Amino acid sequence: MIGAASRRRTSSVPSAASLSSVAFVSSVAAAIAVAVAAAQQPSSYSVILRRGTIVDGSGGRPYQGDVGIQNGHIARIGNLSSERAEGEIDASGLFVAPGFINIHSHAVPSALATAENMLTQGVTTEILNPDGAGAVDVRQQLSEAAMPGLAVNIGAYIGFNSIWSEVLGAATRRPTADEIARMRSYVANALAAGAWGVSAGLDYKPAYYADIEEVVRVVDAAAPWRTNFPNHDRLTPEANFSSRAGVGETIAIGEKARLLPVVTHMKAQGHEQGSAGTLLGMMQAATARGRYTAADVYPYLSGQTGLGALIIPPWAQDGGRDEMLKRFRDPAQRARIVAESEEAMRMRFGGDTGEGILLPATGQLLTDVMRDERASAGETILRILERGNPSAILPFGVESDLVKFLQHPDTSVACDCGATTNPRSHPRAFGTFPRVLGRYVRETRALSWEEAVRKMTALPAATIGIVDRGLIATGMAADITVFDPATVIDRATYEEPSRLSEGIRYVLVNGTAALVNGKVTGAPAGRVLNRTGHMPSRPMNAMAARSLAVKGSINDDVRIDIDLSQAAGASRARGRFRLQDSKTNTVLEVTEVGVLQTAPGWASFTARFRNRATKGEGPVTVIVERADPFITGHPPTVFAEVNGSLSVSGTLREPASVIRIKN
């Protein structure tokens, strides 16, 4: 059925901080020559997916077609009946979609080499360090995670919580100006190393103790990078444990720091159940004010975190676990902690009886432990925490809110999970993406197929800034998920949380088969994905008309001519891209354009080029900046990655008026 496909090389895209105002590649001609030499002949495909229904990630209508893969990229889309490949997949009756992108991953590094629970959900990319967690040295973290091999792609945020803890420790105190500067340097260094945004979990201690202005002063170091701020909303006793206050704070930080706010694993909790419309209205109002706001959600009504993290009052957690346990031993403080913990349970989780709270490590309900302990819910939780620090599954919401969150156009699907081998976790770790497809598309029709796929692919890609994944389009990286719309469904339950999902038939990661007939292959096809400053977080505009025109030269030898347009609702762009290097007599011309993506002053597209001299072909990804934010004077710049390596980058010699972007 399917043969091994070629692996894509890891590109060496420089950080924005390293860019020169003259030219970003010392020898453009030499770089082009090397890249073009790697181009394969147009008839050579590693894999062809035949006769599938293509759900391309844009939100547009599905269509029938074949997909040809070459050199780890999508080479052609259409009728390829006369073409042959090393391996073929018969996708008749199946949907062919971009690989799903999980932008909220708590992956266990040791599980990334196989990632069975994620591949069987159709996930090809995981973005680590959500909720403000993770290493402060992102480059080292990703390098170490990749050493055993990766079954899926990985990237990472830089976590505000980790930075705060690194600099200030576990106790409540106000940071000095020097400490703020140190925290800002961690943010800037991580973004230069390829981080995909600045995450936070302000509901978790000790980051909880930061006031909003302190958070802004740290994270606005990321503003020049035009990136995003996903935050686990902070629900405080002072604000009556209000989800509205938490969402409002996330939006306020994003606005003040000039970052795209993302309300991560969005919820209307406890006593505010039924208020999804109000919360979504707050997001829409922020977008209308000019600060586009997005969200992500998983399709369950219970979450999982440390048992005491969101229940034990913040003052009792001040200073860390040892200080908390000391307070537990003081009778007066213990009584207060029990009372306030039970109030938090009432407000956040719908009651103080312990109903619905599960301890997954032992499979016990809290109510069973309460009966054994002959104690109230709050007192029982303290006793459990005195013996250890287990996680808990905590109920929070209602179905009507969940459906509204899923249906909101700027909400991605993300599982709040990641690659794991833990058999006693939350069912979301094994079932999130198929559950949306099976339950909320096929069974309840809350979403269409094309909208659900968009929320798993192109929307999360745009939210964090990915430009070459998330769409079935010529020139895109060949991360592809093939599933059966008639059978796809989750099987994991709270009682059996590690049951694998069904209906995901094939998964390709960078063109290599990672899942065949529902079984992982063990292929180390994943790679580390790094963001540059020229990949802005942005809203999707896939259904709007847009165009790009560029004419100029990088230096005396290399000229670029681009004139592309994409009609509203069209599956691909049309027009020309021509790169001519007079020194080597190289002329690259586009044979098929993929999708044109635009934002104010910015554009990107993927395509397939042909070398006129050698007749070789290959993929190209182009990014155009009308006014580069990282260069003095903000000149127009162009970046072209040919065959997986940065080959052309530099400032245009002509005036900025030669660049026209319509979005």
Protein architecture, described:
With 663 residues, the protein is of the alpha/beta class. The strands form seven sheets. Strands 1, 2, 3, 4, 5, 19, 20, 21 and 22 form a nine-stranded mixed beta sheet that branches. A hairpin with a 2-residue loop joins strand 2 and strand 3. The longest helix has 19 residues. The two termini are 42 Å apart. 55% of the residues are buried. The N terminus is likely disordered.
Short account of what is shown:
26% of the residues lie in helices and 26% in strands. It is of the alpha/beta class. Among the domains are: 86 residues, no CATH class; 117 residues.
Counting DSSP E segments of at least 2 residues, the number of strands comes to 31
Report the helical percentage.
25-40%
Uncertain parts: 1-32, 38-43
**In one word, what is the shape?**
globular
Structural class: alpha/beta
Oligomer state of the chains in this structure = single chain
User: How far apart are the first and last residues' alpha carbons, in Å?
Assistant: 42 Å
Output mean pLDDT: 92
Counted by DSSP, the helix tally is 17
Determine the strand fraction and express it as a percent band.
25-35%
In angstroms, what is the radius of gyration? 25 Å
Most strands sheet: 9 strands, mixed
